[in-house]
Amino acid sequence: MEWQEVVKRLLQNKISLLGILIILFFIIVAVFAPWIAPPRDPDAPYLIPRAGWSIEPQPPSDEYIFGTTEGQYDIFYGIVWGTRTAFRIGLIVVGISTSIGIVLGTIAAYYGGWIDEILMRITDIFMSIPFIIATIVLVTILGQGLTNVMIALITFSWMSTARLMRSQVLSVKEDEFVQAALALGANDFRIIFRHIILNTIFPVVIQASMRMGSMVITASTLSFLGVGTPEGYADWGQMISFARNWILGVEGNPLNYWYTLIIPGVAITLFCLSWNLIGDAFRDILDPKLN
Amino acid sequence: MIAYIARRLLILPIILFGVSMLIFSMIMMLGPYQRLSTYINDPAQLKGAEDIDQLVSKYGLNDPWYEQYGRWIGGVLKGDFGWSESAGAPVTKAIADRFPATLELALLSLVPVIFGGIILGVLSAVHHNKALDHTIRIFAVIGWSFPSFVFGLIVLMIFYGVLGWLPPGRLSNWATEIVRSADFVSYTGMYILDGILNFNFSIVLDAIRHLIAPVITISILWWAFILRITRSNMLETLKKDYIRTARAKGLADNIVVYKHAVRNALIPVVTVAGQMVLGLAGGLVIVESIFNIRGLGQFMANAAQQLDYPGVLGGALYFGFLLILINLFVDVSYAVIDPRIRLE
């Protein structure tokens, strides 16, 4: 199927269209963040400004339309700049880990034999420890901070792409067009790139799209558990960890601090939902079994 | 089949060695002083040793890495993972104390996760492209996008904060007192099972009440996962010739779907069991720390927060080894049951 056809069908499908619209919204927020929520200190825009020093969250008001969370961090500001953080995590982590996976998976399948065996055993080893636990360990060792979180996520997320790519390449390796290219004397690199990767890329793209959401979830889980971004950094997961002490509200009104949890919760869920909607629709379009 | 099992058993030591190397290389990223903590089994060992350099050389922390690996793995094999500052106990003991709570939660979650996911997937496929199918799929994609920690906190806010039905923790205060009293024999450390064995059913009910919210939080995510695999396999199976034959010979629709199709559609589902076990184990970290369940996951989360390196590393190694063995067991038993799997 051609790219144009896929894009056309993604836009025709109501569900994926919804996903695309939500992502567009987030892109606009991320791009225009300096105008939507002007930073107090232009050199450190990712630090959420504080409206005071009291611990107790304050409800939405004219000045702080989403209210402030624990420690008087401005929720609106955190959400807006957190969008940039989410895109940075998603794009960098998924981009790099998918590339690693494509390269290793292709090498394993194309050359086969002991190269394949070694690469796949390494893949197995990296997959043996649950993803979230492995990332917790690595971030603990490397130390807090967004860069270290991304390094940990990349280190433990390339394996599924490698496996997928390997099985994809194995299935086209024996195809006639690849054999023809070999017979014509094309070099390995050209065959791998022109003839194999371009013919096997769609499932990898679907997987990458679904992973955008899950990487952002994992990164915010780390922040939530207190091993992610440093305090005060514009990051949705951290905003939710601020909410943690306040979810039971006050005597007589258990929902008193709802905004500290629900607002960042909605932002992160919508972000992941949009990527998953697109990935889901994409998969249906490309899966002939389901048509 | 024997060849398949033999191959799996031959690979096992390689994987175990690889995982231990992976963890060890993370230890080596720490400096010698920080690494020291992974060798100390009791804070008393540090007393009187003002000169930390002396300790560093005593434990050989400046030796070449392979010598250090040899010593480290020797200790690990003896169950020696160092002293956990966050738990105030040796890592091995901390893990052993917390293991029953995690096992109880994991076992209790498996049933709703697997059956819920399969039932939804089958319903979705049988009603392909009808309203029910669309509804189930929309819930699935939302469930898949909902971060567990947000969902868990919302459950806590509503069902504990507002309604007071599902409290966090493992037991209520009155039940904890009973469990700690001398009359109550702790056979397994899993309160539901212990309650039954002690014929104390109020403990059983109390333990179940505390587990409902965590189990639901874990299930939401995995329903979506199992549902999708079941659904696409079911759709494929329903188009097979033998299903048409079954219909043609006049079997009732229900029998065709639930007896002939479901069984065959489920085979690919079991092949992802290993992946699921891993995912569930990861989910426990989040769920246990939200619902304040004193288990392995909460231990990992606390240890990470307090930079308790031995705790984090020991926990990861323990999780890794345990899951490798579980996965091996799952794979081998399915290979025994179904000849098709071992051909892959």
Keywords for this entry:
A: 291 residues, mainly alpha, 12 helices, 0% strand, B: MetI-like fold, two-stranded antiparallel sheet, 2 strands, globular, transport (chain A)
Give a brief outline of the structure.
With 291 residues, chain A is mostly helical. Chain A has helices spanning 3-12, 14-31, 33-36, 75-111, 113-128, 131-142, 146-155, 159-173, 176-183, 188-224, 236-243, 258-286.
Total number of beta strands of chain A: 0
Specify the overall morphology of chain B: globular
- Spell the H/E element sequence of chain B: HHHHEEHHHHHHHHHHHH
Proportion of residues in extended strands of chain A: under 5%
Gross morphology of chain A: elongated
Membrane topology (chain A): Multi-pass membrane protein
Pfam families (chain A): BPD_transp_1, OppC_N
Organism (chain A): Halanaerobium congolense
Subcellular location (chain A): Cell membrane
Description:
The complex is a heterodimer of chains A (291) and B (344). Chain A is mainly alpha-helical. Chain A has one domain (3-39, 47-286): MetI-like (MetI-like fold, Orthogonal Bundle), CATH 1.10.3720.10. In chain A, 70% of the residues lie in helices and 0% in strands. Chain A contains 12 helices and no strands. In chain A, helix 2 packs across helix 4, helix 4 packs parallel to helix 8 (159-173) and helix 4 packs antiparallel against helix 10. The longest helix of chain A is centred in the first third of the chain and has 37 residues, at 75-111. Chain A is elongated and about 75 Å long. The two termini of chain A are 14 Å apart. The mean pLDDT of chain A is 86. Chain B is globular. Chain B has 2 domains: 2-86, no CATH class; 91-337, MetI-like (MetI-like fold, Orthogonal Bundle). In chain B, helix 5 packs antiparallel against helix 6 and helix 9 crosses helix 10. Helix content of chain B is 74%, strand content 1%. The mean pLDDT of chain B is 83. Chain B has a two-stranded antiparallel ribbon with strand order 1-2. Chain B is mainly α and 344 residues long. Chain B has helices spanning 2-28, 32-36, 52-58, 65-77, 91-126, 131-145, 148-162, 173-180, 191-197, 201-238, 241-248, 253-265, 267-271, 273-290, 296-305, 309-337, and strands at residues 83-84, 89-90. At the A-B interface, helix 5, helix 6, helix 10, helix 11 and helix 12 of A face helix 1, helix 6, helix 7, helix 10 and helix 14 of B.
